[in-house]
Write a structure and sequence with these properties.
Pfam families: Bax1-I (PF01027). This is Bax inhibitor 1. It is found in: Membrane. Its main location: membrane. By secondary structure, this protein is mostly helical. It is built from eight helices and no strands. Helix 1 runs parallel beside helix 3.
Length: about 200
């Protein structure tokens, strides 16, 4: 989270790197490299360095969204971060204290939901509907909250079966957190923008 915050700071404040296609490709490449590097005591430091680079570039990638939010109301960023933290903690605790494996059945449904969202976004690229865009945001937010439940229980099950790759498990939960944060920022910014239009 600190590396992602540093990446966002570099984009928003220092303007040394600009988030966009290159930062996206870079973060995907680092995530693939991390996934292909086996977990062992010998590679632990190397994998932590790759994780840090991935988180940094992910933070840089958040920059354009944060620029948009800051132009409307900078306080939205803090509100979205606090809301994301509360959501993440609540859903994680729910998964931890729920009956074992009770949320693992969601896997197929969640992947189908992601596929549907992808098709919806492709369709809306040509159709350009504001209503579909908002639906995509809210459905995506609900899906990512469910992913926190699913991923937390899946990580617990993997750990019980001997998979102690905490670095890759961290990637799963980090992506959930960042996606929820991004969607909340956009939703709050759009709501604030609509309120300003109503006042005028």
């Amino acid at each position: 989270m600190l590396m992602a915050a540093a990446g966002a700071y570099v984009h928003v404040v220092l303007r040394l790197f600009q988030g966009g296609l290159l930062s996206l490709l870079g973060s995907l490449a680092l995530m693939a490299w991390l996934g292909m590097t086996p977990h062992s005591p010998d590679t632990e430091k190397k994998r932590l360095a790759i994780l840090s680079g991935f988180a940094f570039l992910t933070g840089v990638g958040l920059g354009p969204t944060m620029d948009f939010v800051i132009s409307i109301n900078p306080s939205i960023i803090l509100t979205a971060f606090l809301a994301t933290s509360v959501i993440f903690v609540c859903f994680t605790l729910s998964a931890m204290y729920a009956q074992r494996r009770s949320y693992l059945f969601l896997g197929g449904t969640l992947m189908s939901g992601l596929s549907l969202l992808f098709l919806l976004s492709l369709f809306n690229m040509f159709y350009g509907s504001a209503l579909l865009f908002k639906a995509h945001l809210y459905i995506g937010l609900a899906l990512m909250c469910a992913f926190v439940l699913f991923d937390t229980q899946l990580i617990i099950e993997k750990a019980e079966m001997g998979d102690k790759d905490y670095i890759w498990h961290c990637v799963d939960l980090f992506l959930d957190f960042v996606t929820i944060f991004r969607k909340l920022m956009v939703i709050l910014a759009m709501n604030e923008k609509d309120k300003k239009k109503e006042r005028k």
